[in-house]
Amino acid sequence: MLDLSARTATLPFMENTDAVRLEAVHKIYGRGGGSVEALAGVTIGFPKGTMTAVMGPSGSGKTTFLHCAAGLDRPTSGSVTLDGREITGMREKALTRLRRERVGFVFQGFNLLPALTVLQNITLPLRLGGHRADDALVASVIERVGLAGRVGHRPAELSGGQQQRVAIARALVTRPAVIFADEPTGALDTRTALEVLGLLREVVRTGGQTIVMVTHDPVAASHADQVVFLADGTLVDRLDRPEADTVAKRMTNLGAWGRS
Ligand SMILES: Nc1ncnc2c1ncn2[C@@H]1O[C@H](COP(=O)(O)OP(=O)(O)OP(=O)(O)O)[C@@H](O)[C@H]1O
């Protein structure tokens, strides 16, 4: 197991082990007096084959961070390296292709297409990328997320947990280097959330994928190898091998749920 505690963001010889790396990333929305600095100089690397939870109070910059790291939004300054490629200066077309082929996304609201079957939803990224679906790979992904008996169903015929499994399968089908998850368990009950977190953990363990997950939930965060905490657009803290209680205390200290 990779010892995250022995690693610092500044060790240059470790950089090639990072699936994603942000260097001095600033993001400013708007101009002049009404501008908001959502990210105020963030430097961090996410080592390959690890799962990281990103936490912080509302408005601390988590979504902005995820969007900049995933190439969905461009930083105002600083650089982002994704799967070994510097993406901040990349043209839109190349960036779209990199995202489609090397990045998977899992969202709170599942974001499945209601008119498509489970199988069609899962294979959509391949078809959008102009690739023929590799039947054996698709079958193994479906098996892995436990949806073998459901491939002909539409999303509305599935439970929330099953819909999130479809979204995870869709994220896995291109064999991405990194999966970005935004509150992946936010719409699920506790038991289903634990199943989905177990599945994400398994993806990291067996597939070597890297997961970066924004969450408000200390229990969800405790499934990660590390938790990083954002406050006012800055990384302020980090926990390795986090436990839910410790995560909850740090969040309270950051004022996330008000002080008692
Ligand atoms: N498109 C935008 N235009 C202007 N300001 C924005 C925009 N998006 C976000 N912000 C501001 O940037 C800051 C960070 O927002 P962000 O959504 O990244 O925070 P967050 O930690 O994800 O919040 P939450 O937990 O409430 O979703 C906030 O002050 C927010 O109001």
Description:
The radius of gyration is 18 Å and the shape is globular. Residues 1-15 have low confidence and may be disordered. Strand 9 and strand 10 (234-240) form a beta hairpin. With 260 residues, it is of the alpha/beta class. It has a single domain (7-253), classed as P-loop containing nucleotide triphosphate hydrolases (Rossmann fold, 3-Layer(aba) Sandwich). It contains eight helices and ten strands. Pfam families: ABC_tran. Residues 20-257 form the ABC transporter domain. This is ABC transporter.
First-residue to last-residue Cα separation: 38 Å
Number of domains: 1
Task: State the strand order across the main sheet.
Answer: 6-7-8-3-9-10
Helix percent band: 25-40%
Named CATH architecture:
3-Layer(aba) Sandwich
**How many extended strands?**
10
- What percent strand? 25-35%
What profile does the largest beta sheet have? 6 strands, mixed
CATH class: Alpha Beta
Q: What low-confidence regions span 5 or more consecutive residues with pLDDT below 50?
A: 1-15
- Return the average pLDDT rounded to an integer: 90
Instruction: Tell me which ligands are bound.
Output: adenosine-5'-triphosphate
Question: CATH superfamily assignment?
Answer: P-loop containing nucleotide triphosphate hydrolases
What is the overall silhouette? globular
Detail the topology: elements first, then pairings.
Blueprint: E1 18-29, E2 36-47, E3 51-55, H1 62-69, E4 77-82, E5 85-86, H2 92-102, E6 103-107, H3 118-128, H4 135-144, H5 160-172, E7 178-182, H6 190-207, E8 210-214, H7 218-221, E9 226-231, E10 234-240, H8 244-253
Parallel strand pairs: 3-8, 3-9, 6-7, 7-8
Antiparallel strand pairs: 1-2, 1-4, 4-5, 9-10
Helix pairs in contact: 3-5, 5-6
The protein binds adenosine-5'-triphosphate.
Organism: Planotetraspora kaengkrachanensis
Keywords: ATP-binding, Nucleotide-binding, Transport
Domain ABC transporter: 20-257
